[in-house]
Protein 1
Amino acid sequence: MRALVRETALSPGDLIYPLFVRPGKGVRSPVGSMPGVFNLSVDEAVREADEVARLGLGGLLLFGLPETKDDQGTAAWEEDGIVQQALRALKQSEASKKLVLIADVCLCEYTRHGHCGVVVTSGEGLYAGFEVDNDSTLELLARTAVSQAKAGADVVAPSDMMDGRVAAIRRALDAAGLSQTPILSYASKFASAFYGPFREAADSAPQFGDRRTYQMDGANIREALREIDLDIEEGADMILMKPAMPYLDVVRAARDRFDVPIGAYQVSGEYSMLQAAFEKGWLDRDRAILESLVGLRRAGADFIVTYFAKEAARLLG
Ligand code: PBG
């Protein structure tokens, strides 16, 4: 009877699995702070995609660990960049017919300084310092999105949080004849301690300062709604909210106000925190995984990006 009257459904097709792709062949290197998560070479990523498709998941979200980094993040948009290589290989696989291939658009994995945009010097004397330059970053993000879409991305997902990037990416995609490629914007992304383990997984920790000049203050819900509003106006087709669990009220507010599809990203810290408790035997693994995901659907998320996607699919199956 509980099943009969259940208000919220969770199914494997609602889940997106993140993949971290790196150079090499036959490589599966474990991420220390995220048990069960690996950096994969392209051939291994294709094998992983097969399994993900068999489990009935909705799609993949791709991140790249490039061979080399520089100040501009050149490896993010190179035709032969690591994510572009992975997209081409995945596109040729059987699995891709069942999966939505989403490419994360950001520069932090590709810049030496680890920031999500171009870093310039600012101020003078005592006040001299560095800052991320919003406007000169837009062109590089647009270039990245176009090269990913050309390589086979079904969706591009900017996560950098520069202002105006959705419009810049939309314009560049259209100009390149890619008007059919939708944009999933990380419209509401808070500066968060919960991204910690990801920065090990993606080797993207900022080498100085932090991301508070471009990611939002966790105390602000009105600002989050304004960011979403702007992104939709600029042409975002879907929006992604993150982190997830500490921001359920923001997901709910966005659901009530906007009609575009909404995704929630259960980020690395949320995953690692649960994994740590499982390792200690403090939480019931299976129940906690599903409860954490149903909560996001109940808050209003249509789909969920989660490192538990494969395991959750098995539990649901
Ligand atoms: C890149 C990006 C980050 C995440 C997704 N895209 C890290 C960050 O902003 O530092 C975090 C995902 C996670 O923690 O699982 N900008």
Protein 2
Amino acid sequence: MRTNPHQERTRVAVVGAGPAGLLLSHLLSLSGIDSVVIDVRTRADIEATMRAGILEQGTIDLMTGTGVGARLLSEGRRHEGVAIRSRGESRRIDFPSLTGRAVHLYPQHEVLKDLVAARLDDGADLRFGVGDVSVHGVTTDTPVVRFTEADGTRVELACAVVAGCDGSQGVCRTAVPRQARTDYFHAYPHGWFGILTEAPPSSDELVYAHSDRGFALISSRTPTVQRMYFQCDPAEDAAAWSDERIWAELRARVNGNGFELQEGPVIQRGVIPMRSYVVDPMSHGRLYLAGDAAHTVPPTGAKGLNLAVADVAVLCQALERFFHQGSSELLDSYGRTASDRVWRAQHFSWWMTSMLHTAPDADAFGRRRQLGEIDQLTGSRAGSAYLAEAYTGWPFALTNPDSVISDTVRRSAERAP
Ligand code: DHB
């Protein structure tokens, strides 16, 4: 016999314990707004999610300004520039002189560990490993999220608002009815072959390389573990590549004129798809989508996590206005405000991709034109400033001066020239 579901209540039901969901729950708690966060994944799975490692200035400022940035400052590394490499020559783009801003190299799974630890320290209600998640009644004032706890208990969580933070494969995106939404989708004809290698760093700063054989990116994780990527066919079988073949490909794309990769054993490998997606609108009734649930970017430029953070900065301010002042004005404009940045980031990620990758159907004109574009970018202050501004991130929207994050957001915006 099935027992009745356990009835519970919260103000914000957060579906998904990735960067968007955990950070939103953290920011709301600073404003005295309670939430319950659920995720189908276990805590260990979440903390092992391998993603990009670049935090924009606004992300750093928001995390440090709200008490979850200590490890990012002590263990992450500030990067004040990147190298754009083509025809065997690296040209550096200097962020502080162009924008007053910088980035931090600190992998996403470390951000997740910090957020989970901070939430648990705070006594937050996080439920990992749940199943059968479904969202109901979002066009009423009393939505309900149903799920089954890891121990089999069925739960009906009544709430005022559902935050859909469950990524591109989650249930929230599709809770917006098809006739009520427009899906913008673009598939790129490339994948990224990503590796972790046990080797010393090859460069102090990231290297984005254009070559006749296609794109490569040299990044880092720790003094002894490096992260590298190279453009490949999206259907490539990573397991079929020997270490030697991987290194030969990377060498051919990056080495030369005194630059030489530091090689070591490949300890992890995989192929990452490249696609762009945006749902419009980013909300439906009392359901608000944030992060990958609302949009996907290709990895070039590492905007995914940063967009999730920017979304929840806007959503947190809107929820504070709603719960503390009884006005849904900022919730109503949430999607419009957030998607302004989403489309800038879509353009930036698409543009970096198109400039640095070799299209399968590229002709001689297209390849030569790319070199002209790279020369214009690296040889002009205006060209470099566009990359530096977009890479270090645009200031967050300050929509609610009474918000707990308004000082942090304001201070971050003041860094911009
Ligand atoms: C990394 C990934 C990116 O997509 C990028 O643009 C920069 C760095 C990384 O994994 O370190």
